[in-house]
Structures are given as structure tokens and as C-alpha cells.
């Protein structure tokens, strides 16, 4: 999974779902397969990030109608993109009726805080990160309400997943200001969040459950491994902003990026960590680079905008390639360099400033007004990340294992899948140079022969030497064989032909009628061919196949051949 996180308010000047619909090719061509929307439920005020939610089952009027939102979801699904909602069910804000029906209102103005007899909310928060009114998730009333919210968005809107905000708050065992308790292991929090995950999966067996926890790893382990053998397991947010900022800026200190992958979490059974260099909550990497970057070498001054942009492709190479789900914060793929603390007027107020930090202010929109997609330096980042995403999503090797060598300006990533024969792409090596001068590095290829430059779509660029010289800010991705994206018959073209659901257990369908459908295992052996009756009914049963990764080769009515990866769980 490659997730693109979006704040609709700052995606385009019109700030609505139609903007996303009109620019669906921006997401499609970047080869992301999930869009995660920051909260769209009714929130306090008109302009917000949305975490001050007041009505969890209503869309905020600011972004558009229910019909337009459903159209956006349909367009995403038609293009093979899942839609994930960021939901703030730790708390609620002022107009929430469940606060107002049981509240203390000493001045009789119709507003107040939860009273002692409120069946949904705590009078005082039971954790140290409280905002708004704190839900009591041990209450049967709150649990029923939460499940109604989950059911509403899954069944009425076909939402594919939830990112649960601030899961540290789902405990009744701590108190405000007690960070040690809040960040430590809490059994009630583990149990209730498992219950919510189970309920989501009871409505949609393929539902994506994501927790923003970033706390006790023992809790994270229990959630990540929960029903993992059934192809489930909760995905955890994995913030890695600081070490990736260090690399982009050209500083070796604190540049260890091992935490981008699930193996950095103790006893995770598999890739259930959404590692990311950027999200909505941290300073932009590019802003840090052009403001604080290494400017010791005039020929490669990181504070220069175009120099900093030239290093962003390498950031994608050493983050997106790691097996497991990854995330892109909106317009990072075009090198967004506007500070998270930029104010409405464009000035930057850092935290602690006398006028506030402007973190939540509406940001400027140069990405469209300045036509960034036609700027060659920014488009290079977009194109490189698109190629990397295509490799990650379509090549089985990226479902395998990995090692990371980091804490250096010359990080190395080895990715391998021993279930794949050496005659296919089973080994990938990522090399990068984040120094401000050229460096010669050892290739240490696992076996002799020509290694293919996987960033070359033709597959004709190869390398076999024991060393390679990398220019500052550059990278290479080598494979032991060509990618299937580079071979004629297996070419996966950009189109609206979609295979769904995926992953699946019993069957799949296609988004339009085709001529023939065949299934191959990862060794290239054909294991299934469907009849014309299957094609006419558009229902392709795979109950006789084992769990694993397969390729579905589809011959369209135009005789074009498309290959889609299919995961059977």
C-alpha cells in the first residue's frame, strides 16, 4: 500500500471534493493506491484540520455534499485507489449533542462541559493528550456509538479504511499530565481497540485499520499481530521525519532510518507499520532543507531550492521501497517547501512566537497556480516517485524481507524475496548519497552478473562493477533481473481497468468486459484460466488457490494485455 494523505482545505483553492475528482490523474499517475483524507466530519468553525469534530456521522458542509463525496469515492475505486478516513473518536467538541444533553451549564448559555451523569464522556480526561471532551470508551454507550459511526461510513459510503487518531486517549486508567501512564501499556486500551478493529472487519473483511499511537511498542505489537494469520492485523503509524530531514539537509547526525520498516518494532509478525518521512503534523522536509541545509559546498548548496529538490528523489528511494505500507504527505512528491507554520499571509511563525505558530492556518496554493507539474525540477521528483511506487506495488520482491544500513549519509537497503527464483526479480539494492560531495560506494551485489537499473523503464541499463560513484543527492535502485514493468507482455499500463476486491479470499471481478483471464503464480506458472462464462458473469472464483501473491493476465477486447497483482488471503 502507498497512501497519499490529503487535507482537502489545502489541496486546491476551491477546497472541495470536486477538486480531487478533477485531479484524479494526479494520484493515478503517481501510482498511489490509497488516499487518506484528514477528517471530513462536521467540525467546529469553517476552516480546520478537522480534528475538532462535533458530529461524527455528518460531512462538514465546507467540502461539499454527500453526493459529491460518494462520487469522489466511486472515481477512486474505478481507478484502483482505496479511500481511508481519518477519524477523531477520542473526543468531541462543543456542539456534540451527547455533550450538551448531559453537561454543566452554570451560566445557562447552552454551552458547557460534561456533567458527572454523562454516560458518554469523562468530566476530566483520562490521558495526558486531551482536546475537547474526552470519550469514556469503557462505557457501553460510547462503544455502541463508535460502532454506529464505523458502520455508517463503511456501509453507506463504502469507505475502505479508518485511521484512528490519538489512540493513546482510549484508556480510563490514566490522568491529565501523567505522560508515563498514558504512554505505557494499558490493557483496557488494547482490548477496546481490538474490539473496534474486529467490528470493522465484521462489516468489511478487507477493511484497513490504522492506529496513530506512537506509544508503547508492546501495545503496538498486540494490535499489529491481531488476527495477522487471517490476513488482517492493525497498521501502525511510524513517524520518521527527523532522520529523513537530516539526510535531505546533508547531516549525518541522527540519520538512522531503520525505523521506517516494521522490523524496527519488536516482534511484529509482518509489515504492519506505515513508515513515513512526512505527515500533516511535522515540519516539511523541503522547508528544513532550504532553511537549515548544509551549505558548506557552493557547488551543492542544499539551501538552494533546486539543489534541495534534486535530493528529494533519493528520499523516495530510501523510504517507499521498504516492504510494508508507506505514506506520502500531500505535495511532498512535488517538493512542497512551504513551512507547516506558515500563516495565511505567508509569513512563518515558529512555535513559541508571540502571535501563535500558525500551524493550523490555511496554506498557500502555489502547486497549481505556479503549475509545479510542468516545472522540470519538481516534476522529476514526481516522476521518480511514480516509478518507485509502480515497482513497489507491482513487483513481488517488495513483499519480501529487507535489511537497512543507515546512520550514514550513504544508506543502503537490501530487499529480497526468497520465494522467488533467481530467474525473476528477487533481489533489489538501493544505494544513495546524501553527502554534498560525490562518493564512491561498494555495490556488494549478492551474486555476480549484470544488475539492472530498475529506474530505467527500458531495462537496458546494467551494472556489474564492485563500486559505483554517486553524485551528491543521487541514488540507484538495482535488481538482479528486469522488472516485469519493463517486459513487453507483462507491461502494466495506466488505465481504468480495475481488479477488485484486492486482497480477496474467494473471488474477484473486473471493472469492464475483457477477452481472456489467466492466473499465474510468482514463479510464472499458469495455475488457472477462466472460461467465457466466467468472463460474461464477471465473477472469477479463486477458492481452489492457496493464499499468496499471484498475477492475473488480462487480454482486453482491444487485444492489449494487462497484468494485475492479486493477493489471496
List keywords for this structure.
6-stranded antiparallel beta sheet, 569 residues, 3 domains, Immunoglobulin-like, 14 helices, alpha/beta, 8-stranded parallel beta sheet
Question: Can you describe what's shown?
Answer:
It is built from 14 helices and 29 strands. It has 569 residues and is α/β, with parallel strands linked by helices. The chain has 3 domains: 2-395, Glycosidases (TIM Barrel); 397-486, Immunoglobulin-like; 499-568, Immunoglobulin-like (Sandwich), CATH 2.60.40. The protein has an 8-stranded parallel β-sheet with strand order 13-12-11-10-5-2-1-14. It is globular, with a radius of gyration of 24 Å.
Strand fraction: 15-25%
Oligomer: single chain
- Determine the CATH topology of the largest domain: TIM Barrel
Apparent shape:
globular
Mean pLDDT value? 93
Number of helices: 14
Tally of domains: 3
Mind telling me which CATH architecture of the largest domain this is? Answer: Alpha-Beta Barrel
Classification by helices and strands: alpha/beta
CATH superfamily of the largest domain: Glycosidases
**Roughly what percent helix?**
10-25%
From the N-terminal CA to the C-terminal CA, the straight-line distance is 15 Å
Q: Class of the largest domain in CATH?
A: Alpha Beta
